[in-house]
Amino acid sequence: MLDLRIEPPTSCRSVLGTIVTDIAEGDRICLLGPSGIGKTTLLNVIVGLDESVPAGAVQRAPNLRIGYLFQEHRLLPWRTLRQNLRLVGVRPHEVEPLLAQVGLAGCGNHLPDQLSLGMARRAALARCLAVKPDLLLLDEPFASLDPQRAQSLRRLIGELLEARPRMAMICVTHDIRDAGELANRIWYLDGQPARLQWDERLASGGDVAGITRKLRSLEHKVV
Amino acid sequence: MKAAPWIHWIALPTSLLIWGLVAALLDTPLLPGPLAVLQTLWGEVRAGELQHHLGVTLRRVLLSFALAMALGTLLGVWMGRAPLVNALLDPLLVLFLNLPALVTIILLYVWLGLVETAAVLAVVINKVPNVAVTVREGARSLDHRLEQMAAVYHFTRWQRLAHVWTPQLFPYLMAATRGGLALIWKIVLVVELLGRSDGVGFQLHMAFQVFDVASLLAYSLAFIAVVQVIELAVLQPLERRASYWRQAGGRHA
To answer: Where are the transmembrane segments (chain B) (predicted)?
Structure first.
């Protein structure tokens, strides 16, 4: 559904180096890598926010719908959750079911700042789902949540993915357990400029130990 | 901490009292007391003069205010968003900011004659740079993260304007409005004094010719009262409504 062919000229000091890959339906990618290496930049390139990348570098399938969960919720703070969802095209009677799906039933009239961090992130997730995405981008969805809330959000995302087998996902994370639980494919981004040091479909999910071993060996190689 | 409401009602009555006392002590026609001014005011009301001149001035204020806000906002947003436009127009903006109101008024009366267009235009030219400078600050501080969000979720131009930009610009527009109204009605009085045959400014001019301090004070106070009503009845409710969401953080669900 999406072909990526980032090939910056060697003279150019860009964050991302050569990255050539593709994303297919049903891919559940966990994007791992050190802090500040360019994982968010890569998501921005994929969604089309990065104007320094030539237009041909990202080939999206026609009418590809992308839902993007930013690190911050980025809901409009002066609009209620209902208004925020209505703005991306949710019909009035669909608001409540959508909020219920992410565990926020009855919160339609709250302002984003009235919610806790975890709730605001769920609301932002509801907005991602509202556009009925073919590709879901999640930028560190579990960061700054206490373990319990992170686990419940992980479970929620797992359920949402299960209910939409054709949807693809890229989830930026630092936690290999996320990869074990959610991913069927691993991207490991490292180096300066950053390249995909590892891009592999996992035969079976949940092999945290195997992923850890492989990552260790990669970290040594890059350094 | 919030001050008790009655604190607001100390300064004005005290000033009124001091004015009355000083006027009674001096006992001169150059400083009439509050009662004398009130009598003059009532006389003008009964003659229909006050309403007429207040109405004319208010019409000029509102017209030039609307024009100045519209032009200034457009210019400010444009300059705030486009560095090229900003670099091009900034020297002009500084020039007009420092151009004395009196110079604009005289020049326009000389060039266009003592007509209504010249009067309104002079006020607009004086006010547009102030609005533009304030709104430009707002346009510069628009949150780029919300811009990205709007791009990802394919907001239409109208949605961006109404739901992303206007709420962010609102405090700046409000500041421009507050400062604007106060500045504009003062300039309008000068414009009327120099080249119009009606309006509060014209009446002040007439009163000045005969040192009629009671009329001077009656007309000024009447117009200050009008501006105060606009502030209380229009601006403050508008601001409360639009900044409702700011207090939301304290009331967590």
So the answer is: 6-26, 61-80, 92-112, 169-194, 214-235
Report the C-alpha gap between B88 and A119 in whole angstroms: 46
Closest partner residue to B146 (CB to CB) among A76, A110, A113 is A76
Nearest CA in chain B to A119: B253
Give me the residue from A49, A115, A131 closest to B151, CB to CB. Answer: A49
| 3-state SS, residue B106 | helix
Q: Which residues of chain A are within 8 Å of residue B163 when distances are taken between CB atoms? A: 76, 79, 83, 87
Q: Are A80 and A111 in contact (CB under 8 A)?
A: yes
A18 touching B (Cβ < 8 Å): no
Model confidence at B253: pLDDT above 50: no
**Which of B152, B163, B164 is opposite residue A49, by nearest beta carbon?**
B152
- Name the residue type at position B91: P
Contacts of B29 (CB under 8 A, 6+ apart): B211, B213
Distance CA A154, CA A160 (A): 10
Please give the average per-residue pLDDT across B134-146, as a whole number.
94
Residue B63, burial from CB neighbour count under 10 angstroms (0-12, 13-18, 19+): middle
Quote the pTM value: 0.82
The structural domains of chain A, ordered by start, are 1-65+133-144+156-223 (3.40.50.300), 71-131 (no CATH)
| ipTM score assigned to the predicted complex | 0.87
pLDDT tens-digit readout, A23-44 = 999 999 999 988 888 899 999 9
Mapped to the 3 state alphabet, what secondary structure does B162-218 carry?
A: HHHHHHHHHHHHHHHHHHHHHHHHHHHHHHHHHHCCCCHHHHHHHHHHCCCHHHHHH
Domain covering B52-242 assigned CATH 1.10.3720.10 in the classification: yes
Average pLDDT over residues A197-203: 78
Is B97 in contact with B129 (CB distance < 8 Å)? yes
Angle at A49 between CA A48 and CA A50, to 5 degrees: 95
Q: What percent of chain B has pLDDT over 70?
A: 97
Strand order across the beta sheet in which A28-32 lies:
A66-69, A135-139, A168-172, A28-32, A185-190, A195-201
Residue with the larger pLDDT of the pair B2 and A67: A67
Please write the tens of the pLDDT for every residue from A156-177. Answer: 999 999 999 999 999 998 888 8
pLDDT at B242: 81
Q: Residue B66: phi, psi to the nearest 5?
A: -60, -45
Cβ burial, residue B9 (10 Å; 0-12/13-18/19+): exposed
pLDDT score of A205 more than 60? no
What local confidence, expressed as pLDDT, does residue A222 receive? 60
In the block, tokens 């050190």 appear at A34
Strands (E), A98-210: 135-139, 168-172, 185-190, 195-201
